[in-house]
Specification:
With 226 residues, the chain is an alpha/beta fold. It is built from nine helices and eleven strands. It has helices at residues 15-26, 38-44, 59-64, 81-93, 106-114, 123-136, 166-169, 171-175, 218-225; strands at 7-11, 30-35, 50-53, 72-75, 99-102, 119-121, 140-145, 150-156, 177-183, 190-192, 205-211.
């Protein structure tokens, strides 16, 4: 998908669905937020373009609100498998090209994929993994997994790296860490593609891409910590 304005339909306005709806709206996207609970709809009515009370297990109701014209849909009712399955099937039958579904567990997720979901997310599991990694590596400020092998991280400059250049450290060869940018701690400016001769400061934070296996090698992890 491009960055142009698109229409997203969010089914289920619990914490997960409401958060996605609000964030997509902040980025200028057209959001249709649906829930069968009117109190949830009223709560979101002033925060998104459209908030509608709807039983999304009913294809005719989805059709009536124009769900088939959406560019993508998010099924955010992962705890209710039957509702999620019917919603996914209805959305696909109405022609929605991309459906992301929240799943309570991997078993639910596998079922959702088989009946048409394009992608599933396991929010609690994924957040748990992310937080565990952050606890293991205390100098990590932010972490995002980009695929099954690599993560993008923002890390505090290890003590052993201070007053040394990227060229001197040679961390790409030694640790398999690629530095994408450096955020100066004094002004928080992020410099992309930093000069290899730049001397790292104590307050710097580095945006890096690293193999996830680094978390499994404590010797390397200690070296990253400095």
């Amino acid at each position: 998908m491009s960055n142009s304005k698109k229409t997203y339909i969010v089914l289920g306005l619990g914490i997960f669905g409401s958060t996605i709806s609000k964030e997509l709206t902040k980025f200028g996207q057209d959001v249709i937020a649906l829930d069968k609970d009117m109190s949830c709809v009223e709560r979101m009515s002033e925060l998104v373009a459209h908030a509608v009370c709807c039983d999304f297990t009913d294809k005719d109701q989805l059709r009536a609100i124009g769900a088939g014209d959406a560019d993508a849909a998010i099924v955010a009712t992962g705890s209710h498998l039957e509702e999620s399955i019917l919603a996914i099937m209805n959305l696909k039958e109405l022609g929605v090209p991309y459906v992301l579904a929240k799943a309570k567990n991997r078993k639910y997720g596998d079922i959702m994929l088989k009946i048409g979901a394009d992608k599933i997310v396991l929010p609690e599991k994924e957040m748990g993994i992310r937080m565990a990694k952050a606890l293991l590596a205390w100098n990590i400020v932010e972490l995002v997994d980009i695929d099954k092998d690599y993560s993008i991280m923002e890390i505090k400059a290890p003590t052993s790296w201070v007053n040394k250049s990227l060229l001197q450290l040679n961390i790409r060869s030694k640790l398999g860490i690629n530095v994408l940018g450096i955020r100066n701690g004094d002004n928080q400016h992020l410099s992309i593609n930093p000069n290899p001769n730049y001397l790292i400061q104590d307050t710097d934070q580095l945006l890096v891409v690293a193999d996830k296996d680094i978390f499994n090698h404590f010797e390397e992890l200690e070296r990253v910590r400095g």
